[in-house]
Structure formats: structure tokens, C-alpha cells
From TrEMBL:
Name of the molecule in the record: Selenophosphate synthetase
Keyword list, A-Z: ATP-binding, Kinase, Magnesium, Metal-binding, Nucleotide-binding, Selenium, Transferase
Lineage: Bacteria, Pseudomonadati, Pseudomonadota, Gammaproteobacteria, Enterobacterales
SUPFAM superfamilies named in the record: PurM N-terminal domain-like
PROSITE patterns reported in the protein's UniProt record: PROKAR_LIPOPROTEIN
Biological source species: Salmonella enterica subsp. arizonae
Amino acid sequence: MSEQAIRLTQYSHGAGCGCKISPKVLETILHSEQAKFVDPNLLVGNETRDDAAVYDLGNGTSIISTTDFFMPIVDNPFDFGRIAATNAISDIFAMGGKPIMAIAILGWPINTLSPDIAREVTEGGVLPAVRPVLRWRVDTLLMPRSRSLVSRSLAWCRPNG
């Protein structure tokens, strides 16, 4: 933990998943004439309001894809990274998939919070992504961006097994 006391939660304008916009507002944003033309291989899309999309590759295999934006819900940087990564990967499990890759994008107010604190967040995010889920391969990528932690998971699944 960093030497100076920090409160990551002071940078949150909501609480975790509570930062999401309402389904009604989301429907207004996503409504368009283009939305009527949905790829027939898209098994789960916007209309179901799920946390992940499922795309059928046509050979009995589907891809599950999800992206999470996560504001701090705890003050400890390592714990915040661990919680955000675990939450993102759980969306793949909830859809019946097996995670094969995870990408974390950390948006960070570099002029306000030190890079050392950002490193603690990314270290916390690697643990749940690599050890329990991707034991056989370590391909978790950590990439800096601007303001919030984004975890994106991609998985393959075979329906019924």
C-alpha cells in the first residue's frame, strides 16, 4: 500500500455498478434505424440487456465478449483492481463461457494520483485474471488510458459443453 493515505472512492461519482445509466436512457441512446439490422449470428445483443454479447461462429462455437467500466468502490488500490477484474471475468462465467483472454485498460488521473498507486491497481487486477481463470496461459494485458478501469474479457464457448 502506498505510504500516503489515499481515498480512491473520492473519485467515484457513483458506486460500482451504480454508475451505470438506466435501461430507459440506454434504450434511447441505442435506438436507431441501424439497430433494426442485427447480424443473425449475434445470439445475445443489446435487446437482452445482458452484461455480455454472444456471437455464433457457425461451427458450434460462440464468442462471448464483455466490457466493464468500473469506478472505485474501495479505497485500497490492490483490492480495487482485484474486485474490478473479478467482476469483469464473472460476466463470462455468467454466460456459460470459459475465459481465454482478458484485457484491462486503466484510465488514471496521472496528475492527481501517482503512477505507483496505478501500479497497485493493475497488480490487483492481474491476480484474479491469471491465477484462477487463465492458469494455462498468461495473456492478460495491462494498458494505460484515461479515467476509469476497464476490464474486457473475451471467451469461447461451445453450447451444451
